[in-house]
Amino acid sequence: MTIRVELPFHLRTLAQVSGQVALDVPGPVVTQRGLLDALECRYPVLRGTIRDPATGRRRPLVRFYACREDLSHESPDAPLPAAIVSGAEPFLIIGAIAGG
Predict the structure, then answer these.
(1) The whole model's pTM is what?
(2) Which residue in 7, 38, 53, 82 is a FRET match for 45, CA 20 to 30 A apart?
(3) Residue 23 Cα to chain centre, angstroms
């Protein structure tokens, strides 16, 4: 299945891509973990930028959105929404801003 992924500017620059990235994610069920594994496989320079390489956990200032919902705290093994899997909507990886 081809999934569209929107990366924040700094990660697009690091991966040397412009616009959305289209990824083939294997498996009958598409999950955050499967999508991020495919992203890091295709763009190895992104390893460690979105998830901690030792634990596999999402970095604190990175958020995941799909279908106008924050999926950042969902299980990485939960199925992604059908609109993401069908390619109708992109999976958004957003760099959060901290401070005041």
Answers:
(1) 0.91
(2) 82
(3) 10
